[in-house]
UniProtKB/TrEMBL annotation:
One of its GO terms (biological process) is methylation. It catalyses: Hydrolysis of alkylated DNA, releasing 3-methyladenine, 3-methylguanine, 7-methylguanine and 7-methyladenine. GO terms for molecular function: alkylated DNA binding; DNA-3-methyladenine glycosylase activity; DNA-7-methylguanine glycosylase activity; DNA-binding transcription factor activity; methyltransferase activity; sequence-specific DNA binding; zinc ion binding. This is DNA-3-methyladenine glycosylase II. InterPro entries: Ada-like_dom_sf, Ada_DNA_repair_Zn-bd, AlkA_N, AlkA_N_sf, Alkylbase_DNA_Glycosylase/TA, DNA_glycosylase, HhH-GPD_domain, HhH_base_excis_C. It is an enzyme of class 3 (hydrolase). Residues 90-188 form the HTH araC/xylS-type domain. One of its GO terms (cellular component) is cytoplasm.
Amino acid sequence: MTIETLDPDFYYRVISAKDARFDGRFFTCVTSTGIYCRPICPARTPKRENCRFVASAAAAEALGFRSCLRCRPETAPGTPAWAGTQASVARALRLIEDSALDEDGIEALAARVGLGARQLRRLFLAHVGATPQTFAANRRLLTAKQLITETNMSFADIAFAAGYQSLRRFNDAVRASYGVAPTALRRDKSAELASRPGSAITLRLGYRPPFDWERLLSYLSIRAIPGIEEIGATEYRRSFRLADASGVVTAVPSAKPNALDIHIMGEGRLPVRQIATRIRRIFDLDADPLAIAACLRDDALLGPRLAQAVGMRVPGAFDGFELGVRAILGQQVSVKGATTLTGRVVARTGEPLSRGDGKLTHYFPTPEALARADLSGLGLTGGRIATLKAFAKAVARGDVSFDPAQTLDEKIAELCAVPGIGEWTAHYIALRAIGEPDAFPASDLGLRKAAGNISTRALMDMAEGWRPWRGYAALLLWMVPVIETQALAAD
């Protein structure tokens, strides 16, 4: 559903109430001031006749409005890519968030989602309110604005992290949008930034409430990879390596409402935008609880579970290859067993951190390293070793990717082409590593038991009514009312 199909008076009631559930779903352009705001902007609600509502921050920028300095659209939840948006546009949005247009052109992006460039532009204008290039430019600008005001990074590093190809382009973009140089935007924050300890970079990532943080953290905790992840009562920590940068990132609930704070400590030129995008996926921060609940709440099987798990999210992954290895090691073993085996693989094949950080001791092995590693003596069967190596080689060759450009069916076929990976594992990887909300491992024993001990075929038929949120339905069946109903489920 595009924003033009709803009554503008509805949107005006939302901004009058400052309803956080709609944060990021639309923006208000204020014609009397020339700025655009989030629905939760603390400023006085503008007059109705001065409001124009658009589907995205990019659409507001395209109309010549500049972002509000009070509600700061750069910290809003991301575009709800699956909330009624045409599927190919949703995939393109994900690719743009992964920096697809920072170097390549619109033709390359369109080809990746199987469309012509003109058709992709037309669909973007209909569903997002802006062209792909405008959307990408807006994402770069908002990332840069957040890094300017929330960190003490150099402007050269900010330009790189935000996706600009040069410092000059970064300066020109900031001046064009805000009318001042980047130094002017940072000036008021200089004392606060100077007081921050060490070289940590801290960013705030917004989400739409409700958010069941405790349940999500509990799910991740019992699956935390030894040496790679450390999960406490209220925080998530992990090591990372991206290109020539490496370090540790921590996520904790923010003191501000409806947000997480992430703290990044690392070496090299940190791709902050990519790190933030991956953290958003781990915690499914761009989920739209209203859209999901509207689809599932009236279902006799899912409705009561949803009522107990308001704000359910699909636990994602920081790295697709890492999650794929974890899924393969979880075939036909318990959650605890899979965690133990993954820890052994990491200790054998992962590169140690230069300086240990608590329980974080290694970086996850690269596909190339795992493909050539000796995995004997770790408690793995010969078949499991063969599957791991085949998977690692396929990823290293590019035969398997975690690119969201493909349809779900295409991705399942790609994964199932790897010897030893069946549909269950493929759907599980698609759900958690790629963020495909409609992935559904219907053959899972836990799902079939939760649905009343029915057959795979019967469960697939039942799940037709849960589209496009079958992945959320799977999590509800796995996790509610208790997190571990089956030793084999969801791992």
